[in-house]
Amino acid sequence: MSVKELFKKVTNKFNKKAAENVSAIYLFQIDDQDYRIQIKDQACELLDSPEKPNVTLKADQATWESIINGSLSAQMAFMLGKLNVSGDMPLALKLPSLFGLG
Which of 51, 62, 77, 95 could lock 83 by a disulfide, CB 3.0 to 4.6 Å apart? Predict the structure, then answer.
């Protein structure tokens, strides 16, 4: 699965109700490629511009595929050192509910 397909799958899982009162830019660094998702007004949008993120998440593509497909939780990936997170931690903790990433 390509990274672009991964992000299409993620954005299709977007939970509008969980995004109430959330305004943030998430930067996903996957195998040295940057992808930004903006959550604003209970909507999710992939950004092409280099907006400053509130949260940065870094992992390889295999780890992201496991998280998105549900075979690895984001929390477990973080504890195993497979997922690095920096920035606003309360916003980072909202990701599982925003995108169904148990």
Answer: 77
